[in-house]
Automatic annotation (TrEMBL):
One of its GO terms (biological process) is mismatch repair. This is DNA mismatch repair protein MutS. It comes from the Bacteria. One of its GO terms (cellular component) is cytosol. Belongs to the DNA mismatch repair MutS family. Keywords: ATP-binding, DNA damage, DNA repair, DNA-binding, Nucleotide-binding.
Amino acid sequence: MTVTPMMAQYLDLKANYADALLFYRMGDFYEMFFDDAVAAAEALDIALTKRGKHEGADIPMCGVPVHAAEGYLLTLIRKGFRVAVCEQMESPAEAKKRGSKSVVKRDVVRLVTPGTLTEDSLLEARRHNYLAAFAEVRDAQALAWVDISTGAFHVMPLSDLRLGPELARLAPSELIVSESREPDLRETTQDFGIALTGLARSAFDSSGGEARLCTLFGVETLDAYGHFSRAEVSAMGAILQYLEITQKGKLPLLQPPQKEAEARTVQIDAATRRNLELTQALSGGRAGSLLSVIDRTVTAGGARLLERRLSSPSRVLDQVQNRLAGVAWCVEQTAQRDDMRDSLRKVPDLDRAMSRLSMERGGPRDLAAIRNGLTQAGLIHEALNVVSPPDLIADALGNMIGHNILIDHLDAALVAEPPLLARDGGFIAPNHDEELDEARQLRDEGRAVIARMQAEYVSNTGISSLKIKHNNVLGYFIETPATHAEKMLSAPLSETFIHRQTTANQVRFTTVELSEMETKILNAGSRALEIEKRIFEELCNAVLSTAAEIAQTAKALAELDLANALAKLAITENWVMPKVDSSRAFQITNGRHPVVEHALKSGAGEPFIANDCNLSADNTTANIWLLTGPNMAGKSTFLRQNAIIALLAQMGSFVPADAAHIGLISQLFSRVGASDDLARGRSTFMVEMVETAAILNQADDRALVILDEIGRGTATYDGLSIAWATLEHLHDMNKSRALFATHYHEMTALAGKLPGVENATVTVKEWEGDVIFLHEVRKGAADRSYGVQVAQLAGLPPQVIARARVVLDALEKGEREGGATQKTLIDDLPLFSATPVAPPPKQKTSEVETLLADILPDELTPRQALDALYKLKDAAKS
């Protein structure tokens, strides 16, 4: 069967994008055909229809409306699809000029992938959307990443070993690698939910990459931005080539690349990030994470900066202290702090508005966002420049000014509330352009002229129901009810009114005068729109010509928002400024876990029990707390809260404590909780051992390590041996500051043998066979784990609890006497006996309980109630 010209065009375009769904523009819809239609209909839950035949079979088809396409795009991207957007490059009228059967020219204008989104509706305003590339040149590797929606561009040297932790830190949406490395990295990217894209080796050519970078930034050499290795240039060049492919040559406005170094940030592996729930809760999503609890930012840029700081705490002392000084200054500004916060609320997302304008996807509202953001920046500078801020705030304020000419230009040109799209018109203010005002006047007066013409025609014909109307087919026309057709078609009216169309109920006419006025009105309207589009392009060029300065202002606003937000957090939650220095101190007074404390306040309003922690160590000996105590007593919370306090301090935040002195930590390791990895064939114990091995092999003497229940996933003596040896290695070899929680009470003996180990315990209180958790951490060791009591609280049947107590007593007695073997214990305790264990005897009912059972309160008179009370009192005495 012959393929239609339109379907031939579709198949030609689809052949170039075999791995993507093709959104084929047809009028007001994006249509999909063949396998694309089947896949999209299922993913989007829309109707699957058919259109014509191909090779004797029906062609499956589905479509989505253009005006709602962004929502469908987001769904497809989240489900792992890529989408090639194919637009009409000419109007149907232009196509017909080439012949009545000519097909409208179409071409793909953009390839939409997870890492190349720019629209607000497709992105989370408070999170970065990174596109990353990993490159190898001989023995060197590097990772580059970019957020095209904000222009942020970074690169760093990176070994294969560090790739996983860095991907966990950045959480990019998409990773570009050489096709030869795709199979090796597929498992890693799947773990983090990252889309993996393979490019040909030529995309990673460092010479070509350097040329692309120099062309993009308009320089002869990259030396002005720093010294980059061939691997780093290769990674950055691969990103640029991928953007050229996906954006069809319309590169985003990228900032000059910033080189990062591992030595400048605290190294945190993926397991630790997961265990501490820094930016994402274990259950998935932002809610319940540390980030969700501490976020008080009011701008999108400030929120993104907070997530970056929390994910990458600094280990550069001057930087940490400058950030803390900025927060402290905001805390002190009691009179201006709330006003500053209100002003910041009015700041739009400058970075993303600039990015859309640079890629020709912006609209009048993006120009208004630039105008409003720069205006607010000037007002904030004016309000705060009268005081003496610290360096961090002073630098930010200095970058908020210097835009007066651009602000005045935009303010004069734009209306207060412009429409979303430039094609809608109406966004240029009156009196800004004389030619535009003339076109608008003619267009608007033309409407009044049409109304006067209608009144004149009604008067001349005597037909009060005569109307002048407009549609896209006929243009302006005169319409009367069919009952007046004979009058209109007869002389003398037929000499003036020219018949155009007859419908079932109406008759339509025109006049020479009406046709001439229509031409004037239509020309004026289209001319006005063309003038507005020209002015829009001029305004965009004016904005983009100062892109670097606007980017600095956006960065300054984010910095000020973050400092103000952390100050707000410190005041409302009673946090304190930590002392951070280059020592090996680690002393927390009345520290608290911010997420748990928030949950308690939000729930029953219970107070959080604060605790001290002192891991301060000299230059030769590690200081380790060996923490014992029952489950549910708060050991894991205590471990986590101290790690979180250290991270908060080094990101430049106040901390949840009465006082804190923290010597810079270089690495943070956490082995808390139990999980398996069945997809890789790893049991819970294997995962535990893999994570422990990573800690022991990597932790240095400036690391902070928190370990919980090492060795509990295997047999008792195996586990005890592993835990014992692990603690010794941390003490003797790693020399790290550490918190080591365990149920192996035998290990408390190490406190007397290793000078850097000290025992601590989470206290409990027993009352009538039950255990009460006090959540207090004190020096000393626990004598037992209270496992049976915890099992009772969990709701195990009374028979099980009673039997467990019997078995526990026998086992402990055997251990004390030292002579009972396991077999003897089993013989003495019929653990496998077929005889059921008798339930515990019921307690005898007391006299008070008997009297209470006979009392019916609703039937007692006041006198009878008083008598009953005296009887109960006498029974209680006896």
